[in-house]
Fold this sequence. Notes:
Number of helices: 16
Distance between the termini: 28 Å
CATH topology: Growth Hormone, Chain: A
CATH architecture: Up-down Bundle
Helix content: over 70%
CATH class: Mainly Alpha
Shape: globular
Structural class: mainly alpha
Number of strands: 0
Strand content: under 5%
Order of helices and strands: HHHHHHHHHHHHHHHH
Oligomer: single chain
Amino acid sequence: MSAARAAAMAAPETTAPRPAPRGLLFVLPALVAFQAISTDLYLPALPAIGADLRASVEQVQLTLSLFLVGFGVAQLGWGPFSDRIGRRPLLLAGTGLYVAASLACLAAPSIEALVAARFVQAVAACSGVVLGRAVVRDLFEPAEAAKVLAYLGTAMALAPILGPVLGGWLTLTFGWRSTFAALALFGLFCVAGVLLAVPETNRRKDPNATRPAVLAANYAGLLGDRLYLARVAVAALGYAGIFSFISGSPHVLIDAVGLRPDQYGLCFAGGVAGWMVGTFAAGRLNRRLGLAGLLRVGTRLAAAGALAGLGWALLAPPSWPAVVAPMFLFMLGAGFTLPTAMALAIGPYPQKAGLASALLGFLQLLFAALVGLAVSALYDRTAVPMMGALVLVTAAALLLVRRAAGERPRPADEALSAPGRSSP
């Protein structure tokens, strides 16, 4: 072992990066919102894309579902490489690639080309989300990180609230391709933000982080950690519910109810407003309820919204209040659970924050993509498939929330220090 590596391992646990510029507080929400803005802004354009490119609902849905697959898989690379070489250089590479992929989406001549460009866009976009969470873990301990992620969630809720409204207006005024021009501009803003305001926060770089044997052992250790998996599952189930709304609501509200794209954007924003209220409340109640309390309250609120939505869908024809009101309550609960479950999952891994964040994101988005495909396949011009998916995921979350809130018996990094060792 080199002297430099030995010194790094001997560094005290309290070692922290130099104070970050104030601009970081503005850039982090944008980075963490990459996925939300990349999906929500073009949602009102989905029917127009299908009509212009002569694509079926299932083909158009691939621009959303395969985006999530690419987003999830690419995290498995971005996270470990950031543990090895740092967060900042990879953020610059990812945001730059995002701009190029957005321009390719804008110019796509066919649905196949658009799906391929969206996949590349997803690979680039996930750098902001996984590395943004890792930056938060670099700077804060778990309890404080949950509060910071909650407040970041409040700020980034502007993306799904304003995104569909802006996307609907752009689609009606300039056509669906203008939504990807807007995403390219957003990417340019993030490139500039990283250049000007994001310092290197990874002070525990591990030169062995991407060695195949070490990487395999580290991932195996995480997958063998039941507490980590329970927390990831709660986050994944919550996001799958959100994604069932993302993938199902354009068809229900535009196709079945008959709303215009701009009206759809307003309804979507009404549902997502619950997320903003929930994340803000979670940040304020962090100390009073504790992390376990936030998980319990959030899953119960989400379950209540899901049950109300399914009951309404079964008893009445689809309407915008029957979608927006239950989704507001579900999103309110998700605003409690998602930031908390993420912080709890990543918190015990300060030396492998990128890796833990990457695996969390991969599992979360893979499951969400499968739920989205199922909702689209079962679409019957009612809200029943979408709301039924919400009920299923919240029921599973209620079963797991007690385990997810449990105490860890020993520091997790002890179990991931070398190949061949895994946590119990």
